Amino acid sequence: MKNFYLTLAFMALYAIGFGQSGTDPIDQQEPSLEVYTTVSGMGDRGIQEIGEVYLDDIEDADEGIVVIRICVDANGQVTLAQFTQDGSTSSDDRLIAAAVNSARQFRFDRFLVDNHCGRITYNFKLE
């Protein structure tokens, strides 16, 4: 109920001229970018460290799926992180660069197989 009265008070102040002309503060919320990541093709190999996704400016950013082909050595280090159009729905260079940089940071369990390859799929969604 308290939030209801605060909302009414804000709306009343805005209606009598305390808001800036032509702008709506409710519509000026900062957009956020949600990123959902899926690793496939790595079998039972566990993930030791997940790469963080950094994107400096999300204004005018695209939404979509970016697929990165990865290969991992026997020590769990990513040796190849390369964009693939197969399965990707976005060609936004910023999203691709952020996904490639993130994929390079992944660390996997040690394994008997060297040059074990799979994919990391990044689903970027603006909220």
List key phrases describing it.
24% helix; 127 residues; alpha+beta; 4-stranded antiparallel sheet; disordered N terminus; single chain
Unreliable sequence segments:
1-25
Q: Alpha-carbon distance between the termini? A: 27 Å
Helix content: 10-25%
- Could you tell me the radius of gyration in angstroms? 21 Å
Report the structural category: alpha+beta
Q: What is the string of SSEs from the N terminus onward?
A: HEEEEHEE
How would you sum up the major sheet?
A: 4 strands, antiparallel
The overall average pLDDT, rounded, is: 78
The number of helical runs is 2
Strand order of the largest sheet: 1-6-3-4
Could you say which overall geometry the principal axes of the C-alpha atoms support?
elongated
Number of strands: 6
What does this structure look like?
The protein has 127 residues and is of the alpha+beta class. 24% of the residues lie in helices and 31% in strands. The chain is built from 2 helices and 6 strands, in the order H-E-E-E-E-H-E-E. It is elongated and about 45 Å long.
Task: Describe what is shown at a glance.
This protein has two helices and six strands; from the N terminus they run H-E-E-E-E-H-E-E.
Helices, strands, pairings?
Elements: H1 2-18, E1 33-40, E2 47-49, E3 64-72, E4 78-84, H2 93-105, E5 107-108, E6 116-126
Antiparallel strand pairs: 1-6, 2-5, 3-4, 3-6
